[in-house]
Amino acid sequence: MLDIPTVQRAAPSKAGLVDPFGRHVTYLRVSVTDRCDFRCVYCMAEDMQFLPKRDLLTLEELDRISSAFVERGVKRLRLTGGEPLVRRNLMQLVRRLSRHLESGALQELTLTTNGSQLAKFADELADCGVRRINVSLDTMDPERFRRITRRGDFATVMDGIRAAQAAGIRIKLNAVALKGVNEDELSEMVRWSHGQGMDLTLIETMPLGEIDEDRTDRYLPLSVVRERLSREFTLSDLPERTGGPARYVSVTETGGKLGFITPMTHNFCEGCNRVRLTCTGTLFMCLGQEDAADLRSVMRSSESDEALHRAIDAAIARKPKGHDFVIDRTTSRPSVSRHMSVTGG
Ligand code: SAM
Ligand code: SF4
Predict the structure, then answer these.
(1) What GO terms describe the biological role, i.e. biological process, of this protein (predicted)?
(2) Which end of the chain has less Cβ packing within 10 Å, N or C?
(3) Which domains does the chain have, with CATH numbers?
């Protein structure tokens, strides 16, 4: 009998994802919608044009691509947006993804939210294995909150935070430091959030997408904020790095942890472990660059995931070294034309 070798199609590599600079990609952020019920002044224009719904991946497709990443060694998955909790039936996706927590493949399933819908979904999120979430809150003043978000209700967000805490979910607050807007209350926010058992991370405004105002006017370097806070608090650097952009300090007076995300004053790219998927299936290998890979058409071209894995490999092989953000008066256009709500921060 002739020994005829069977023609084997190249098996997709299930190896972990390592970029050309040796960085392991273990963290995927998924923007499940570009829509939002707020219009934060630093994030969006008042009359934002959102994507037509027909362009969105279905929840099944979001699950399929996310799960392909989990298969390739992604350990942390963050759902974001736009506002993730305004995506219809999002809980179906969270429930499906939670199988990877149960199997142990995924260490963390989490989300970043503005908190407006949190009271409604907190219990179910906890039930799906979500243990901590990030809530964005830039001020403690309801009037200011309305002005910054253009349409948010402070009390509703507070209810959401309390509901999440009651459900056993730990919360980290994120606040964008804005010159002339909330700079006078940042120390109060440190005291309040730590007093409520929540860590706080401050973020520098980043030049993403056209908005209705000039970002230069609102840009507040966190080096300045840190210097001011250190007059009131004892801040000690913590060695802890999450592979993310934040540097942490402990605050002796409150016993809490304070993070600084400083893309403008300190480049955070050397330890970057993440990539970002949009709600249309576009993969951005860097928040601060335009290069992207279209995973939607690849995924839709075949029922098997082979081509998808190959496309993921090719994308990771193009992950750039870092971003080139600039905010100054000589550059009136944003460094990156898409809004933060497309890639979800
Ligand atoms: N809607 C959710 C929320 O606000 O938490 C999730 C998406 S939002 C785009 C994610 C984070 O990005 C928020 O903490 C928000 O404050 C931050 N953000 C939005 N635009 C930004 C910008 N231009 N510079 C810095 N941070 C920004
Ligand atoms: Fe919406 Fe979040 Fe952007 Fe505010 S920061 S407009 S809540 S996506």
Answers:
(1) Mo-molybdopterin cofactor biosynthetic process
(2) N
(3) 27-343 (3.20.20.70)
Average pLDDT, the chain: 89
Do the annotations mark residue 48 as ligand-binding? no
- DSSP line for 255-304: TEEEEEE-TTTS--GGG--EEEE-TTSEEES-TT---EEEHHHHHHT-SS
In this prediction, residues 304-316 reach a mean pLDDT of 97
pLDDT in tens, 261-280: 887 655 667 888 999 999 99
**Residue 191 in marked binding region:** no
Q: Which amino acid is at 112?
A: T
Cβ pair 193, 252 in contact under 8 A: no
State which of 136, 208, 278 you would mutate to test the pocket of ligand 2, scoring each by most atoms of that ligand within 8 A of its C-beta: 136
Q: How many CB atoms lie within 10 A of CB 96?
A: 17
User: Mapping DSSP to helix (H, G, I), strand (E, B) and coil, where does residue 78 land?
Assistant: strand
Q: Residues enclosing ligand 2, CB less than 6 A?
A: 36, 38-40, 43-44, 81-83, 114, 136, 341
Q: How many CB atoms lie within 10 A of CB 18?
A: 14
Query: Any idea which residue has 């309305």 for tokens?
Result: 146
pLDDT (tens digit per residue) in 123-152: 999 999 999 999 999 999 999 999 999 999
Q: Are 295 and 313 in contact (CB under 8 A)?
A: no
